[in-house]
Structures are given as structure tokens and as C-alpha cells.
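Lab notebook, design round three. We kept the backbone fixed and only want residue identities now. Task for the bench partner: fill in a sequence for the structure below.
Input C-alpha cells:
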């Protein structure tokens, strides 16, 4: 029986509504980072904030470990009224405090920040920080993803010209910088089946693959992290990343790369493209996730998730176009190639 399985779950801190390095969140962010100092998997913050002297001084209390990863989301869109130069100064301070900062270009919006000069400017920042960049998702002006892949081609071309290591998923970049396996792509025969059972997921094994009876897209991500294997399901409950182990007190969310442990609260940055409030379960203040070691004690059994679930989450309703009986992540999301081992 593996009772310490949660130590291998990659965690993102305060990545719901609200930025981890703003005044509202900073104390909580530091407490969470420090509580994960013995965590075995990578844990990160992703920020767009411009920090002041007070926040910089508080950040000196963060205990640094090899698994802690700082990502800065840089778009050239001057979110919150802060200029590119001001963000550059924050990135330099974070780099000074924590070593390597990975630059994340998210979002790129057609007609706003997708021009070559802007992309070049961002890549130059990556060159002077960790030499690593995550290409992020390309949106059109209506917030639809992945509509203009030639923008990504431009970004890749500029990275190659500047000898920058580029990645399409934050998991690949974090795996590279922490010398870990890529938990998104590097998959094997399932382990920790006892944990999946204890969390109350119903499943069969089909050709050495776990097939969940019911799953949200978040469940596919979460069980992949726990079992280090590719997961199928007979029924997709919702396209959301919300987990079936959520209950009235605790909501759990797992993206393709990270388990979220977050205060979903106010955000001082107020990006005009923010989509968080269009997600039903994030439109009010709430806690997302708990300390990983508390998950088993503070969640409901997944099989208790009722059919009312999809009613509650209408916007996350998922209708499959696939003719396959069992669906996996690759049927429900756009996949990206792994770049974690591309630069060894
Ligand atoms: S407004 Fe939304 S996208 Fe912008 S920093 Fe806050 S949570 Fe993130």
C-alpha cells in the first residue's frame, strides 16, 4: 500500500483566480510553498504580477528547493497597467531570488500580441533568465484556443535562432529544469492501483490500462499523475478539470500538468482576457484543493458523484466526437509533443 503517493503529485500554488505574488495572496503563497519543502514532485507558482519592495522582502522567507519552479507569464499586453519594463524588473528580482525563471507566453491573442517583434522581445527575456520558454496557447479574439499555429511556428523559429529551449507544456519545462520525468508524457504500466480504489474511483483494467467507469477530464489528469499511466474512461462526466472527489467543502482541480492548491479569490491584475469567471465552479470565492497530504481525508469517494454533477456544470458539458467506446485525454484535448528530453 502506498500511503505517500501524494508526494509525487506536481502542485501549482494559487493558480486559480488571483495571482500568487499579489498583496492579497502573498502570505498564503509563501506558507504553501514552504509547506511543500519536502515534496518529491515539482511544485510551482505562475505569476504575472509586478512586485513591490514589501513583497520582494517577504519572498526572501521562501525556502528554496530543487523542486520549486517559478514561471513568469509574459505576453507584452501590459496587464494591470504594468509596462513590459516593470515586468522585466520583477523577473530579474525573481531570478535573483530563485535562480531560473521560466518564461511562459500565455495567452497569445490574434491581432493583439502575436506579431513577430513582440514575440522576439519576449524570447530575449527568456534568453536572459533560464533560457527556457513555454509556448502556451494561441487564442483568437473570442478566446478560442489553437486557431493560428503559424504564430507558434514563429515563436519556435525565434527560440531556435536564440538557442532557447522551448516547450509546449509547462510539465515538460518543469521536468527539464528539475531533472524529473515528464509526468504528462512519460507513461508506463499503472502503479498505485490501491490509491485509485481508496479514492473511490471505479475502474477496469483493459490491456494493462486503467479504464474509469466515469471521469471528468480532471479525473483523467489526476489518475494519470497517481498511476503514471495513460487513462481511459467509459463516460466523460464533464470537460472541466474539476475532480469527482470534490465535495461541498473542498473542490479539487487538476489540469494536464498540475494539481491546483489555490485560494480562488479576488485578482488585482484584472486582465481583460481572463476566462476564470466563465468557469461555473470558480465564479465565487472558494478554496481549490488542500495540502496534498490531506487529499484522502478531505475528499468524498469519487463514485458518490451523482448524475446531478453534469447538471451543476452545464458549461463544462462534454460531447464526444469520437466513435471509440473508451476515451482518453488524447480524445478530449489537443495534444502536444513532449520536449522534456529534447535538450539532454
Ligand atoms: S485576471 Fe485572470 S488571467 Fe489575469 S492574472 Fe488574474 S487570474 Fe490570471
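Proposed sequence:
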Amino acid at each position: 500500500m502506498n500511503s505517500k503517493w501524494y508526494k509525487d503529485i506536481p502542485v501549482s500554488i494559487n493558480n486559480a483566480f488571483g495571482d500568487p505574488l499579489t498583496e492579497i495572496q502573498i502570505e498564503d503563497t509563501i506558507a504553501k510553498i514552504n509547506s511543500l519543502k519536502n515534496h518529491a514532485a515539482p511544485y510551482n507558482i505562475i505569476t504575472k504580477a509586478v512586485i513591490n519592495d514589501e513583497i520582494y522582502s517577504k519572498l526572501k522567507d521562501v525556502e528554496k528547493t530543487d523542486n520549486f519552479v517559478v514561471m513568469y507569464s509574459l505576453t507584452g499586453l501590459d496587464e494591470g497597467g504594468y509596462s513590459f519594463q516593470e515586468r522585466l524588473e520583477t523577473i530579474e528580482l525573481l531570478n535573483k531570488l530563485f535562480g531560473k525563471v521560466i518564461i511562459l507566453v500565455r495567452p497569445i491573442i490574434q491581432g493583439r500580441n502575436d506579431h513577430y517583434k513582440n514575440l522576439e522581445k519576449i524570447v530575449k527575456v527568456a534568453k536572459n533568465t533560464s533560457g527556457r520558454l513555454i509556448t502556451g496557447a494561441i487564442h483568437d479574439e473570442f478566446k478560442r484556443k489553437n486557431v493560428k499555429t503559424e504564430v507558434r511556428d514563429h515563436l519556435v523559429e525565434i527560440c531556435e535562432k536564440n538557442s532557447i529551449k522551448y516547450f509546449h507544456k509547462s510539465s515538460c519545462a518543469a521536468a527539464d529544469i528539475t531533472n524529473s520525468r515528464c509526468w504528462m508524457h512519460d507513461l508506463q504500466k499503472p502503479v498505485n492501483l490501491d490509491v485509485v480504489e481508496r479514492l473511490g474511483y471505479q475502474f477496469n483494467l483493459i490491456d494493462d490500462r486503467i479504464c474509469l467507469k466515469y471521469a471528468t477530464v480532471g479525473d483523467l489528469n489526476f489518475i494519470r499523475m497517481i498511476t503514471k499511466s495513460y487513462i481511459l474512461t467509459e463516460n466523460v462526466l464533464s470537460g472541466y478539470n474539476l475532480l469527482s472527489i470534490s465535495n461541498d467543502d473542498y473542490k479539487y482541480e487538476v489540469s494536464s500538468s498540475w494539481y491546483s492548491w489555490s485560494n480562488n479569490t479576488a485578482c488585482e491584475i484584472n486582465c481583460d482576457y481572463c476566462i476564470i469567471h466563465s468557469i461555473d465552479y470558480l465564479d465565487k470565492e472558494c478554496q481549490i484543493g488542500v495540502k496534498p497530504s490531506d487529499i484522502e481525508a478531505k475528499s468524498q469517494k469519487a463514485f458518490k458523484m451523482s448524475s446531478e454533477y453534469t447538471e451543476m456544470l452545464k458549461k463544462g458539458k462534454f460531447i464526444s466526437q469520437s466513435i471509440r467506446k473508451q476515451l482518453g485525454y488524447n480524445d478530449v484535448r489537443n495534444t502536444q509533443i513532449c520536449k522534456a528530453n529534447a535538450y539532454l
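Keep this in mind before ordering anything: The pocket of iron/sulfur cluster is lined by residues 17-19, 48, 79, 267, 269-271, 274, 276 (CB under 6 Å).
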